[in-house]
Amino acid sequence: MSCCLCHDETAPVLVFRAHGSSLVRCRRCGLVRVLPMPAPEAALALYDAAYFEDARHGYVDYLADEPVFRAEFRRRLRVVQAAGGHGMLLDVGCASGALLREAERAGFTASGIEPSAEMAELAAARTGCPVRAGSIEAALVAAARYDVITLFDVLEHLVDPVPVLRKLQLGLMPGGLLAVTVPDFGGLWARVSGPRWPFVTPWEHLLYFTRRTLRAALCTAGFQDVHFAHAHTPLSFGTLASKVPLLGAVLPSALRHRGFGLPMGTLYALARSAPLERR
Question: Is residue 24 part of a domain?
Answer without folding.
Answer: no
